[in-house]
Amino acid sequence: MQGVTLERILTELHAQYGWESLAEKIHIRCFQENPSVNSSLKFLRRTPWARTKVERLYIKLVKRQGAILNRNKEE
What we know:
By secondary structure, the protein is mainly alpha-helical.
């Protein structure tokens, strides 16, 4: 994931899922109570275990999007 900032990861996840769905997928308070990109970034930068969960979800999203693109190219 070199070159991908935490802010970009969080922004893309929020755009894809929204705060409510993110809070269901990853149970951390920064997604549940008054969520924002800035407050979530502060928390995730200080909390390695939470950042790892967010990065793993992002990787799944990117893989899923890549699989969809490849399938569309084959059709």
